[in-house]
Amino acid sequence: MLKLPRPKGSAAIAPSILSADQLNLGLAVQKAAQGGADWLHIDIMDGHFVPNLSFGPATVACINKATTLAQDVHLMVERPEDFAEPFTKAGASSLTLHIESKGDLKKLMARIKQSGLSTGLSIKPDTAPAEILPYIDLLDLVLVMTVYPGFGGQGFLQNGSAQIAQVRDIIKKSGRRMWLEVDGGINEETAAVAARAGADAFVAGNAVFNAPDIARAIARIRRAAS
Ligand code: DX5
Ligand code: ZN
User: Which of 97, 155, 156, 206 counts the highest number of beta carbons within 10 A?
Assistant: First the structure.
């Protein structure tokens, strides 16, 4: 089953609901779906790996009732093994772990794939892209953070392009097909920069949910990214 659908001839755009009005999440999800989002990006924070809290499995379960969009779940948690099962049961499409988190990540990723989900690894801005190499055969997605994780609305870090290009090179050499997703400070301008460096999936929180017209914002990011 295709867990993270690939739009024809285009980049994937994944609005991050972290920037949505949390009292009106249902409306935000509906607007993103109608506005042409390919996936929804769900940021999960535990207050330890990052100094913030966000959503839980119940949110994912509720979103599943409201939309058929794939849920690209980004686990910014210290111990991802504690959360993989609840988010799988809740209906996540994909679980992305941080390479800087604790536990046996290979074993956990294998288990996630066995459950029928896609799995990814994310690297923080100061993590060397080569650290993904031991996991390459398990990956469906690499997520390059272009801000320090924890909060929406930050600016795209300049060294992001170099990291994306290095990850693209590693993927190319592996001969495997996987997404190269970018997350943090993505808007029309930075999506174009990230796309040139090799990204093909684009998370955007602030640039989508704080835009006056969500559909227009998604379309503009898609055009810049394609
Ligand atoms: C930050 C999160 C991002 C965040 C991106 O730690 O991982 O997904 O929502 O928000 P923007 O697009 O506003 O930088
Ligand atoms: Zn994220």
Answer: 97
